[in-house]
Amino acid sequence: MTLQWTAVAFFLYVELVVSLILCIPFISANRWHSVFHWRIWSWLSPYWNKFFFAMILVLVVLFIDAVREVQRYSGPDPLQEAQANPNLYDHVHMKLFRAQRNLYICGFSLFLWLVMHRVFTLLNQIAVTLENSAGLQAQMDQAFTAAEKHQENNQILKKALLEREQSNSTTENQLKLEIEKLQSQLKVAEEAVRRSNAEVEAMRRQAKGLAQEYDRLLTEHQLLQNQCAEDKKDQ
Q1: Domains in the chain: how many in total?
Q2: pLDDT value at position 86?
Q3: Which is the most buried residue in 52, 55, 129, 235, by most CB within 10 A?
Q4: Helices 86-166 and 3-22 sit at what angle, rounded to 10 degrees?
């Protein structure tokens, strides 16, 4: 095996090991997200896209070269020449075997490289979705607390209004002024309750959408894990 194909085979083994680690079920997406935010990745991030596309280009070129070699040694001309010379027949089949081996190695390396990139992206998206869901849940709890507080204030204001109406210790004018003041406060409080209820409803809808998006990303991540496992079994 030449140096270039030895490097491709080593790259394929590394991809298999990384894919197996990514498929470990007890490592959560949040943990992977924290791993991806290590300082070393921030240093390498400016070169990551260049390296990713460079590897795709190299693997595609090697894949095309392997296809060319397979077609070269599987054509009719080499086989006719090999039939005339028994020693050449073994040599041609050896070359054909090596070309097919290189084709499979390069093809699987390119496939796993794209799968790993997609898995990394999905893990980041799942982690971000979980963080957003936790933040929205906290905001919903605060909104519920504020709504309950406003409702309690309304009850207190209504009770005070009834007590003021039943009280005869003050003059009629003073009582009207107090009633008008309490009614204005009651309107302000009810408006605040309506706004709080609207915010809670909007947050519920957003949380439902995030939950659906999380389920979709988790399903796609599981499919990719199963596909990686099937590829590993096929090898």
Answers
A1: 1
A2: 58
A3: 129
A4: 30
0.70 cut: is pTM over it?
A: no
CA 136 vs CA 73, 208, 209: distances in Å: 62, 10, 11
Q: How far is 215 from 224, CA to CA, in rounded Å?
A: 14
Nearest to 220 by CA among 112, 123, 109, 127: 123
Containing domain of residue 228, as a range?
Answer: 3-234
Q: Which amino acid belongs to residue 49?
A: N
Element (H, E) at 185: helix 172-234
Reported residue count of the chain is 235
Q: Decide: residue 127, CB within 10 A, 0-12 exposed, 13-18 middle, 19+ buried.
A: buried
pLDDT digit string (tens) for 6-45?
888 898 888 888 888 877 777 666 676 666 666 666 666 6
Residue 29 has a pLDDT of: 63
- The pLDDT of residue 57 is 92
